Amino acid sequence: MPIKRYSSKEPVVFVWVIVPYILFMNLLIFGTCIFSSLPCFLKSFATSCVYFFVIYGVFGSFAVVIKNRNPSAGDLFRRVRLMLPFFYLMNIGAVYGAFYIFTNVIHLGCIPRPDMEWWTILYGCIMSTVITFINEGMANWENWKNSLSESEKLKNAYQRSKLLGLKGQINPHFLFNCFNTLSGLIQENEVEAEKFLDEMTKVHRYLLRGDDEYLVALADEMKFAYSYLYLTRARFGTAVKADVQLSKEMLSKRIPPLSLHVILENIIYTNALSKKAPLNIRIAGDDQGRLIISHSLHEKIIVQNLNLDEGLDNLITKYRLMNMKEVEVVESADQRVIVLPLFEPESTFV
């Protein structure tokens, strides 16, 4: 079982601090007597190392418990307020214990100086304070570096998402099918052709959005979804059926942009479409505030290589980088359900 540490640099801090700490602690306890002979010095140093190593282990275990209960960077002063009083009490007990051991258990030829007990305790408390802030600094430095790494990964994931959205928008099959449908509508129904062109423009405008927002309102994402589904129904008719049931409260929540584009494109292009066996798509919310996209499954013999799984994998990666609950994909013999956690309206990522 691995030892839990306050930070990965804690052993380095311990190595650099423990030698001068032990030397000065022994000097306070025994005075210059410990330098009277080499065996006396080595025995006192070795004994103190073992003793204070155990004490440091108790300190470290308590610090890890406090950190686990107050993990955020904003809890720094709360952690310090909880740890230092405990450390000061431990120092009192540790110093009295050291004086007792060197007086009654281990005899070095040097007698501990009782008049230095409180000076030794003061030194121990000062060193505990210094070590606490050093460990906090190391831990916060690591968190800062990790946050930069996670932020960079998140930015890359979003850039990849936008690239995939652009690729989907300019995909020759997508454009050809849209223009082919538009051409037919122009000959048959100019009003419907104008409506189709308007919705097609909305879809392309959303896919080419120029901002770098990490989250958008679900209401904005649904506007895109309605336009995308309109184009799909215009192309395939009754072979595609969609049902949307979302409350106003649900629409105010936030979601990574182009999430529904990835999912809807995956659904449309990986399922066989037929008027006899229509593809049923349902978008709704649940009582946990999550977005549920479910659809019937219709096996498609030939699936065009449109990087559809890559887009869905990228969406799942984005949620992981945001430290959100996992995207759930549950598939049965005749249905697949995709569950997207939603962010609260005030949520932001920078």
Description:
The protein folds into two domains: 10-147, no CATH class; 171-341, Histidine kinase-like ATPase, C-terminal domain (Heat Shock Protein 90, 2-Layer Sandwich). 63% of the residues lie in helices and 10% in strands. It has helices at residues 10-30, 38-69, 76-105, 117-170, 172-188, 190-207, 218-236, 248-251, 259-270, 308-321; strands spanning 216-217, 240-245, 254-255, 279-285, 290-296, 328-331, 335-341. A hairpin with a 4-residue loop joins strand 4 and strand 5. Helix 1 (10-30) packs across helix 2 and helix 9 packs antiparallel against helix 10. Mean pLDDT is 78; it is low at 165-170.
Notable traits:
10 helices, 350 residues, two-stranded antiparallel ribbon, five-stranded mixed beta sheet, single chain, Heat Shock Protein 90, alpha+beta
CATH superfamily of the largest domain: Histidine kinase-like ATPase, C-terminal domain
Number of helical runs? 10
For the record, the count of structural domains works out to: 2
CATH class identity of the largest domain: Alpha Beta
What is the CATH fold-level name of the largest domain?
Answer: Heat Shock Protein 90
Strand ordering within the main sheet: 2-4-5-7-6
Structural class: alpha+beta
Give the tally of β-strands.
7
**CATH architecture heading of the largest domain:** 2-Layer Sandwich
Cα-to-Cα separation, first versus last residue? 36 Å
Percentage of residues assigned to helices: 55-70%
Any idea what the radius of gyration is? 33 Å
Q: Tell me, briefly, the overall form.
A: rod-shaped
Order of helices and strands: HHHHHHEHEHEHEEHEE
